[in-house]
Amino acid sequence: MHTNDRGATFRCAASWLAVILSFYFLVHPSQAQSGRQSRYYSRVNSYGVIAAYSNDSSHILLGDAERRKLLEFGVSYNRRLQLRRSVSWQYSVEFLPVALESDPLSQFVDEQSLPDVATTITSGGPPVSCSPITESYNFPGSNDETFSGIATLSCRDRRWTMGEAISPVGMQWNFRPAHKLQPFLSSHGGYIYSAKEIPVDLAGSFNFTFDIGVGLELYRTLTRSIRVEYRIHHISNGNTAKRNPGIDNGLFQVTYLFGR
After folding, report:
1. CATH architecture of 4-103+159-259
2. Which helix (H) or strand (E) holds 25?
3. How many Cβ atoms from other residues are within 10 Å of residue 38's Cβ?
4. What is the pLDDT of residues 159-171, one digit of tens each?
5. Distance separating alpha carbons of residues 253 and 260, to the nearest angstrom
6. Structure confidence by residue, pLDDT tens digits, 30-80
7. Using CA atoms, how far apart are residues 56 and 105, in angstroms rounded to an integer?
């Protein structure tokens, strides 16, 4: 996110949603499947094991950091809030104790042609963009020498940063709950805490996250299913640090679920 207002709005919305959900659970507790509901593929409580991966990042929503990878493993819990003939509405929470984020590293190459021919290669921290930048230089030095050459800044190699993430505020809507194969929409909000600053230096180790996704859930039985989805996943610090380029990933996620 690029402004303090957006970060504050996100945190406020998440807090109000948590309050609304707590009130809903107190006033409208879900019932176990019985009678008419038994013909639906819709568990009251669902527990899942998650694996997710993204091989690249770009500007999709709010992020500017390029070529970031994301690998996550964790667990999930879904609580059915409401079941209708056409849709099953669920509260969703995800805990990801393994959240690996990968940043490309910068490389500076100086190809000097005067006064001597020489090439100098220097490595640096993660840049925001990996588009190569090439500039020619020519300037006078001491002793009537002239320095000239070509300087290029690009990306080379990368580093992985260990972190953990949790999304305590989430929703999922499964459509056609009377069928084994169900399309669904989902959305989550939370945070990620990393061992180093991501996605660039001075960006901070604490970042907010949110995602929106679409996918298919295949029920093998009334109690077990496999969920495959594609998410647009965003990471940024809400301007709580000096730099905040943000990361937008296209994330593929597979979840194995069971419950009743």
Report:
1. Beta Barrel (2.40)
2. helix 4-27
3. 9
4. 999 999 999 999 9
5. 22
6. 444 444 456 899 999 999 999 999 999 999 999 999 999 999 999 999 999
7. 14
